[in-house]
Amino acid sequence: xxxxxxxxxxxxxxxxxxxxxxxxxxxxxxxxxxxxxxxxxxxxxxxxxxxxxxxxxxxxxxxxxxxxxxxxxxxxxxxxxxxxxxxxxxxxxxxxxxxxxxxxxxxxxxxxxxxxxxxxxxxxxxxxxxxxxxxxxxxxxxxxxxx
Length: 147
What we know:
Elements: E1 12-18, H1 21-32, E2 35-40, E3 44-49, E4 52-58, E5 71-76, H2 80-89, E6 93-100, E7 105-111, E8 117-123, E9 135-136
Parallel strand pairs: 1-4, 5-8
Antiparallel strand pairs: 1-5, 2-3, 2-9, 3-4, 6-7, 7-8
């Protein structure tokens, strides 16, 4: 798998939606010890915790993400097109087909048999976040700010 500086290195990445991404990100950092890795405008953030990560995304009106639920799971795969074909053959409801993005990922989203939302992502290039207009944020946690 290609390493991509615009993507967390974790293989499985939960995607959690909140009404206010910045407030939620700072709360998760303060309360649970996450560290902000990347802020993407005011609608998306990547948070790290050890070798794991979560993505915080904006909750749309009606309480749904772009994949149709309040949360999703992102999974990094070697070949997103082959994975997409396999999922479709097994009856996954495809929400968006494989698409290449400027941040170096090729992704598709689907819904499983129970209605859970999934995004599968293949790193196709190593892209610095600032190459596509995003800002890498140094750790937001201050060990002296424990409460």
